[in-house]
Amino acid sequence: MKKKNVISLIKYYVEKNDAGFRNEAYEIAKGFDASGDYQLSEYIMSLLSNVNTFVPQMSENTSPFFEKIEGKEEVLLLPDVITSDLLGVVNAIERHVGINKFLFQGAPGTGKTEAVKQVARILNREIFMVDFSAVIDSKLGQTQKNLSMLFKEINSFVQPNKVIVMFDEIDALALDRTNQNDLREMGRATSAMLKGFDRMNENVVLVATTNLYKYFDKALIRRFDSVIDFDRYTQEDLLTIAEKMLDQYLDKLKLANRDIRLFRKIMKLMPQIPYPGELKNLIKTSIAFSNPRDGMDYFRRLYYAVCNEKPEDLKKLQSQKFTVREIEILVGKSKSSVARELKEGVMNE
């Protein structure tokens, strides 16, 4: 520990500059660690964290600008092309070369926010999501001041390499400043955010999400090291993801009746298979609301959710390329009964 460290500690203490005091103490701890005095380094860090684990200068309990959210434990279902990009993000962060700002853009339900949680889990970082309702203020100039305070807090993390700051739906502050329909106040706020990005501690990872990328301020886009496009699902990707979701929920509810071919046929009745966010709700509710005494009932509910009608018209089901056995499942009748009714229908035409 050098004399300047002692002087700085005293100075920050007298000035009641808690952020400066903690940062200086952290630098001292790093110095002891580098010199081989690991126990003293760990002791200082435990005093700073109170519980022997890192605690940011601000937390969800003390800062009005942040909400702490948990990482994601479940496997995230994404197309290979997006998964590859996310692994690239992880690799770039772990190399510690100053690549720390990322923008995830795509339609609602494409998995942007869930992807941030997965990245945090892989990197063993905690996520602090910016609460824009606390940042944006109707008073003239206050939003700019709040943004200044926000980035000051971001730069005051005790262990910045353990944090991901998430600007979820950053559209609230990122619209094009040259757009004549945009309020000048919000344009100034965007300018303030640009300055904050430029002065941000590069050890803190920042991930923003948006579904309004085409309206983004171009200067702000340039501040991000990489933009990951989540609008890259093919229909086959979505079918594969839907199958994996089906397996997950059937396992969770201990339902053994599975017929992937029938499931795919029902899903293909949709003109456009929805993105995972909507897909998840569609499959989950069909299974959850099904009759627990009838292991095939979820197929009927799924058909109803997809087609907005019950599977009762045998001729229509046949025209939709369902086999007699599959129609038997969908209408809840015996195979012989279905075959007989279809045959009678043909004879009556």
Automatic annotation (TrEMBL):
SMART domains assigned: AAA
Keywords, sorted A to Z: ATP-binding, Nucleotide-binding
Record keyword ATP-binding present: yes
Residues covered by the AAA+ ATPase domain: 98-234
GO molecular function, one term: ATP binding
Pfam families with a match to the protein in the record: AAA (PF00004)
SUPFAM superfamilies: P-loop containing nucleoside triphosphate hydrolases (SSF52540)
Homology family: Belongs to the AAA ATPase family.
Protein name: ATP-binding protein
Organism expressing this protein natively: Anaerostipes hominis
